[in-house]
Amino acid sequence: MGAVTAAGLGADALWNAARTGNSAVREVDLPGRENARVNIAAAIGGSTDEAIAEYTNATTDRFAAMTLLATEEAFGQAGLTQRSLEERCGIVLGTGAGGAVSTDRNARAFYVKDVDAEPMSVPKVMPNAAASLISMKHGITGPALTISTACASSAQAIGLGFEMVRSGALDRVVVGGSEAMLTPAVFRAWEMLHVLTPTASRPFSTRRDGMVLGEGAAIFVLEAADSATARGAESLAILAGYGTSSDARDMLRPDAEGAARAMRLALQSANLPPAAIDYINAHGTGTVYNDLAEARALRMVFGEQTQTMPVSSTKPIHGHCIGAAGAIELIVTVSALHAQIVPPTINWLGADPKCPLDPVPNESRPVGMEAALCNSFAFGGINASLVVRRDQR
Amino acid sequence: MTTTPHTKDAIRDELMRIIAREGELEPERLVPDATLDTIGIASHDLVLILMSIEETFDLYVTVDSDFADVETLDQLLNLLTERIREHQAEAAAPATA
Questions:
Q1: Domains and CATH numbers, chain B
Q2: Which B positions 12-71 lie with beta carbon below 8 A of chain A?
């Protein structure tokens, strides 16, 4: 697996930040936003930005550059360093906005005319750019797809890739997602929804008042057990199940029943009872309505177990990366399983009686875990849950 | 050009006008005891209402945990009025370090 986030380059940098409760959220100074109501985000900067810049060029937008970077790490770790033509390998990635930075630039070039137009705008902004660039760079000739379902994009991409391998259609699939949409205009669009916190994101906490945006990419190589064993690949975990559902209710407000359905389907897909889950990495945006609905949904699926089972949201660490959220949070979940440590929900001030659960407040906790579940719930009422297990071998 | 409402009643009246306009509701439907669901104030209406408050009162109201307790129109009006008055009091007498 591989990751590029505001916490730095690499899955390890992300896990270390999550485990130690070290938030990558910072003040951002975007042009034209002098009167910004909200000016914090988990924005990538420093040496990570420079690394992304090396992959960014006339045909590669920031969101695709991040994906290529994360893929290098994932392929290196998976032992896939040689270019090979593989029909039985596919790519399924998720993104909410695709080439948002280039879209923004292209619009300015046309309407405001204060920057140069980019002839290669079309292939840069198209949401499948990341998947296609990976296919071209690594010679992958199987099916390449891109899922765009807002905050559920990469979770659904991972789930779909998982089902393609499970069905026997593919031996291997590159899955994950990326999001780079912190442009001034997009930031203001989010601000207008009045769900961004001007201070700090506090999932499941009393006095929480919204989410914080982030950007980043995370990639996994999913492989059929026979194929992985045959080439002596190191397995990090087993992706055991996937469930997805639609609320069919409201465009913005999540529904507990829809979320519960996705979790139950994921458990059925994994052939596991609720009692088998030892940790949940929540969608936990820190908005009033998500955390309420998610807490209710957890109670519907896990009942009394909700009182004692650790449920944490790491969004205050790496931000809500929208289309990349599911993939980034699965990196954290797999790392947690490996380390047998649950990362904390930081910025927690106290219990909200309407969200009765154990959010592992502010400090990580060593917990024996065999299986974990990861949630992603999107605007438009789309829900996705993934179940991951420790590889016992 | 109208001045920004400052008294509790004036603020409440302005909020009712905003809610009726942004929610596209007949004023007769705005019964204080009625729940937001029965009146027909949906999640996207709340966004438009908060946007209008931002423009009218120069105040960014985030949907925070107090909103979770709001069920009726009266409760919504009370919460928003309170926020606006707090903001206006702070603006009039800024705290010094």
A1: 8-91 (1.10.1200.10)
A2: 42-44, 46-47, 50-51, 54, 60-65, 67-68
